[in-house]
Write a structure and sequence with these properties.
Distance between the termini: 34 Å
Largest sheet: 7 strands, mixed
CATH architecture: 7 Propeller
CATH class: Mainly Beta
Structural class: mainly beta
Helix content: under 10%
Radius of gyration: 20 Å
Oligomer: single chain
Strand content: over 45%
CATH topology: Methylamine Dehydrogenase, Chain H
CATH superfamily: YVTN repeat-like/Quinoprotein amine dehydrogenase
């Protein structure tokens, strides 16, 4: 069961002191800032407290029930696989097509067309050609200190690491721009939508009052807006006028980004464990926090919990249609049919390698990063 926490009013941090956009240097997977500061819910307990900045914070604990436009949400029962699994009539299981070994841990991946982008500990970014998915080949490698986040839109690739955010031109495989991390902090997650880049910064596992969500133009020349979140922001995904942030112990944070110059907190939903990754598609949000919680966000200011998938080490998710891909350290890469949120079905898992890092999908393929086995390319299941 999740808790809904409404924070009213929010604290908007001045953007001009975050970093110097002119200071450039030599770059989910996943993919705005606004008007509404919160939404009321039916609550069993409410407390009011005053933050250090002097703003009043209303903390509301609420059940996710039909009274708040949500069903209770089913939990898939098998402790290892999260519920129904195995051979599904009429459906193929996920199939390993090819792999690309790396000399260090793969932390994050993104895919666009026939190219994959993968970040590696102490090794930088590599670009892979997936024209033959059974034989991924390296196109280019760009050295970066320790990149841990990547997003792509066409030929624009954005990579975050402990030193800042980098823009790579995939057509020329060259650096197009960069900015230092705000306040010297690490970039935790990055998304790009319609020429706007969204990224989070964090303090490498420590609570950080000044950390949050940043919005900047695609050329990385001028920050448009910033919202401090105050926990440990990591993954970020965007759909419509809302950004969804996995905020460590802060759970899922929904931010109205309809006015990029003034992002506002819409609602915060606490989840069990530490929220590390988030993906969004067709009005559904999936939060990785050891297990995975699925929310209906067709009304983004009132997320309705739908399903919880059991797990202990799910780090990242990616949604492709109704196939939800989970990057899990044990049993590995998992794929779940979430077409019916009340009865999700596990289509299978690839347990011969440790996933535990990023996963990204397109219509045909899933690309997953492994701590031990580099980058692997997997065929999407086919049903019918």
């Amino acid at each position: 069961m999740s808790s809904l926490r409404l924070l009213l009013p929010f604290t908007l941090v001045a953007t001009t002191a975050c970093f110097n956009p002119t200071d450039t240097q030599g770059a989910t997977a996943t993919e705005g800032t606004g008007s509404s500061s919160g939404t009321s819910t039916s609550a069993s307990a409410t407390t009011a407290e005053t933050s250090a900045e002097g703003s009043t914070t209303a903390t509301t604990t609420a059940s996710t029930t039909a009274d708040s436009s949500a069903s209770e949400g089913s939990t898939m029962g098998d402790s290892s696989m999260g519920g129904s699994s195995g051979d599904v009539p009429g459906c193929t299981a996920p199939e390993l097509l090819g792999s690309y070994p790396t000399a260090s841990q793969t932390l994050a991946v993104a895919v666009w067309g026939t190219r994959a982008y993968a970040t590696h500990t102490n090794a930088g970014l590599i670009i892979l050609d997936l024209a033959d998915p059974t034989n991924p080949t390296q196109i280019a490698a760009l050295p970066l200190p320790n990149p841990s986040a990547v997003a792509v839109l066409g030929d624009d690739v954005y990579v975050g690491d402990p030193t800042g955010l980098f823009h790579i031109d995939a057509a020329t495989t060259s650096l197009a721009g960069s900015i230092p991390g705000p306040g010297g902090r690490a970039v935790g997650g990055v998304a790009v939508v319609d020429g706007t880049v969204y990224f989070t910064d964090n303090a490498n596992g420590d609570t950080c009052d000044a950390c949050g969500l940043h919005i900047i133009d695609s050329e990385l020349t001028a920050e448009q807006g910033m919202l401090a979140l105050g926990e440990d922001p990591r993954g970020v995904a965007v759909e419509g006028d809302y950004a969804f942030v996995a905020d460590g112990l802060g759970g899922l944070v929904v931010v109205d980004v309809s006015d990029p110059s003034s992002p506002t907190l819409a609602i915060q939903v606490l989840v069990d464990g530490w929220a590390s990754g988030v993906s969004v598609g067709d009005g559904r949000v999936f939060v990785a926090h050891g297990g995975v919680t699925m929310f209906d966000v067709t009304q983004p200011t009132m997320p309705a919990q739908l399903t919880t998938l059991a797990g202990t080490s799910v780090f990242a998710t990616s949604i492709a249609g109704n196939w939800l891909w989970l990057s899990d350290q044990d049993p590995g890469l998992r794929v779940v049919d979430v077409g019916d949120p009340a009865a999700p079905v596990e289509l299978g898992a690839l347990a011969d390698f440790t996933a535990g890092a990023g996963v990204a999908t397109n219509e045909d393929l899933a690309v997953v990063g492994s701590y031990e086995h580099g980058v692997r390319v997997v065929a999407q299941p086919v049903c019918g």
